[in-house]
Design brief:
The chain is 69% helix and 0% strand. By secondary structure, the protein is an all-alpha fold. It has one domain (2-114). Residues 29-40 have low confidence and may be disordered.
């Protein structure tokens, strides 16, 4: 019985975290997606110094960064530089799909964390 209550409370906490993350993604989507003429990238500008990209690529990288942050459940921007560096490496290799950029960055980060 105690285990069932613990599991239920943990699932509720995870569901609340997902709702919070999706709310944050929805609220930041206009900037990441370039709606209403904003079109700015969420990437730290210093990381783009040696990577000449067009506005569409910057937009895709910004969307991928936000998707990665939501997937990881990050509420702050402290890890943006680390994530963005992985995304830019993948974009330099030719990837331009934000979903695949997000997946690739997560796999690279997981490899560094767990030593795969």
């Amino acid at each position: 019985m105690v285990a069932a209550v613990f599991l239920a409370s943990r699932l509720l906490a995870l569901a609340r975290a997902q709702v919070s993350a999706m709310t944050r993604l929805t609220n930041s989507a206009p900037m990441a997606l370039g709606i209403n003429g904003v079109g700015t990238s969420l990437l730290p500008p210093y990381l783009l110094d040696d990577f000449d990209v067009d506005p569409e690529t910057k937009r895709v990288l910004g969307v991928a960064l936000e998707k990665t942050r939501v997937f990881l459940g990050l509420a702050d921007d402290f890890a943006d530089g680390i994530i963005a560096k992985r995304l830019i490496e993948l974009a330099k290799a030719g990837e331009c799909n934000p979903d695949l950029l997000c997946q690739g960055a997560i796999e690279q980060l997981r490899g560094h964390l767990y030593g795969d």
